[in-house]
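It is worth pausing here to work through a concrete case rather than discussing structure prediction in the abstract. The textbook approach is simple: state the sequence, then state the predicted structure, then interpret. We follow exactly that order.
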Amino acid sequence: MPRCAKIAGTGRYVPERVATNDELAERWGKEAMDRTAEVIGQRERHYAAASESAADLATYAAQDALRSAGIAATDLDLVIVATDTPEYVSPATASVVQHRLGASNAGTFDVNCACAAFVTAVDMGAKYILSDKAYRNVLVIGTYAMTKYVDWDDPRTPTILADGAGAVVLTISNSPGFLGGKLITDGQYHDYMGIYVGGSKTPANEESIKTGLHKVRFLKPYPPETNFAHWVPLIRETLAKAGLTTDDVNMYLFTQIRLVTIKEVMAEYGLPMDRTHCVMNKWGYTGSARIPMALDDAVKLGRIKPGDVVVLCASGGGYAMACTVFRWA
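Step two, the predicted structure:
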């Protein structure tokens, strides 16, 4: 009997605080927010409360996913948290979430490759199930609390970045769910965007904080074609590993940083936009949480059905990229 891995449940958490384009236009101007709506596709975004941390968001999304999968926290063998806005520099946020969930039988670790972290972690979680009989149930959470690191005087970040979390439960299966994955990185972009104070290179102190680099910063502009140039071949190569083509895919879910890029990729494949699902219009840009939140939304809206082929394609700072393909159970 083959040993396979499938997604058995999905979940999400969206903070209550909503900031609309009209609200932000009072500070940043109507022209800037109209451009945000046109190019990025955002009309609203949600901010975590002052009392909410990355682990809080992750825990709520995880509880939703566990309910969806019909699995108790004590049945989990592994908890992976994908984030670049951790609860602490150390220890791992996954330890905090494991304790809050009561997942007493699960090992834990964090994955940080910025906005590509969730899809990377899903690839890892599926392969744990495929390769080791000790792993039957794996919880993967993408959580993003980047507004905690935003400089509210920098118009490039408050208008785009938002908070939220999404999660999936991977379980052992007799029929193929996970069909393949591929990870790639172009490390020349490591110093383009990120949080550059607080690590061992530049520890947080009075002098380093004065630079403002303890906040999230766009230090250099990414070429606008970067995602398009990488996503198109990455998806084709991942599908080829599964013996599939772009026409075989029922649903594409991308990192949702620019709506225009998603439209360009779908046009390149000759596919209609109803073969993808976008949620940046209502939830803003939520980094490593973006794809699991969109996945959960598509599932709950009935846009993904048993037997469908689903592609998850992510990219993030670093410049890290990840792609996985599943057949929906």
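Step three, interpretation. The radius of gyration is 19 Å. The longest strand covers residues 163-173.
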